[in-house]
Amino acid sequence: MTILITGATGQLGNAVVRHVLARTDEQVIVSVRSPEKFTLDGVEVRQGDFEQPETLNFTGADKLLIVSGEAPDTDTRIQQHKNAIAKAVEHGVGHIFYTSLTDADTSTVGVAVVHKATEEAIRATGIPFTFLRNGMYHENYLGALSGDTVAVSTKDGRIASAARDDYAQAAAAALTTPGHENQVYELTGSTTWSFPELAGDRFQDVSDEDLIAAGVPAIFVDFFKAIREGVFAEVRPDLEKLIGRPSTPIKVQ
């Protein structure tokens, strides 16, 4: 059994590789844009860029994890993913895993468009799939929560976030155990929290417009709106089941 992981120089992808190596002696391959940035031992390293599909080499992969890429706009990001999916078909990959987003097929969050389109493209291949629909990451909010003033537009909206490493462990578990064909896993933390709860007196309720005027990127404002509307408040059991324990609670330094 050969497992191939893309995006292995990124924080999530690298963590997945580490956990896979700890769980199995099967062959592990990584596909990365800049091989010189990958420093883990015990794996085969292939250079590959989603924007240059001719560089992608998934040959020999029984299981392929496509870690969602980054791009400046939605259309480019979707095309990058479709490039990887097309190569998976061309190279005879046996099973495609994809790091998606909570409720990707129904979510109103702007970035969900990318994940819905990618999931649809994977389904259309007919190759067995596993969608790892990651919820919010603790790490996305620790910076804001550590400030002297925590000015956000979430009001008392709750977030069932989890640590990046927990999501990585879940992906590694799915990649190294049988029985995940054509499964969709909704991955969230085991508990919820809110900004007023964690920030206390430092919490400042502001509007989306205030944040935009202050230069906060639109994608973050969109997520704050979603939190305010309860989009990420539901606790799902799938993460606990995959990692075999409750998720790591958020901890503000």
Mean pLDDT over the residues:
96
The coarse silhouette is: globular
Strand neighbour order, sheet with most strands: 3-2-1-4-5-6-9
**SS element count, helices:** 9
Instruction: Provide the gyration radius in Å.
Output: 18 Å
Cα separation of the termini: 41 Å
Strand content: 15-25%
* Class from secondary-structure proportions: alpha/beta
Note the main sheet: 7 strands, parallel
What's the count of strands? 11
Q: Runs with pLDDT <50, length 5+?
A: none
What attributes does this structure have?
single chain, 253 residues, alpha/beta, 7-stranded parallel sheet, two-stranded parallel sheet, 19% strand
Task: List the SSEs and their pairings.
Layout: E1 2-6, H1 11-23, E2 27-32, E3 44-47, E4 63-66, H2 74-90, E5 95-101, H3 112-125, E6 129-134, H4 139-145, E7 150-152, E8 158-159, H5 164-176, E9 183-187, E10 193-194, H6 195-199, E11 203-205, H7 208-213, H8 218-228, H9 238-243
Parallel strand pairs: 1-2, 1-4, 2-3, 4-5, 5-6, 6-9, 7-11
Antiparallel strand pairs: 8-10
Overview of the structural elements:
With 253 residues, the protein is an alpha/beta fold. Helices cover 36% and strands 19% of the residues. It has a 7-stranded parallel β-sheet, with helices on both faces. A two-stranded parallel sheet has the order 7-11. Strands 8-10 form a two-stranded antiparallel sheet. Helix 1 (11-23) links the parallel strand 1 and strand 2 (27-32). Helix 1 packs across helix 5 and helix 2 (74-90) packs parallel to helix 3. The chain is globular, with a radius of gyration of 18 Å. The model has no long low-confidence stretch (mean pLDDT 96).
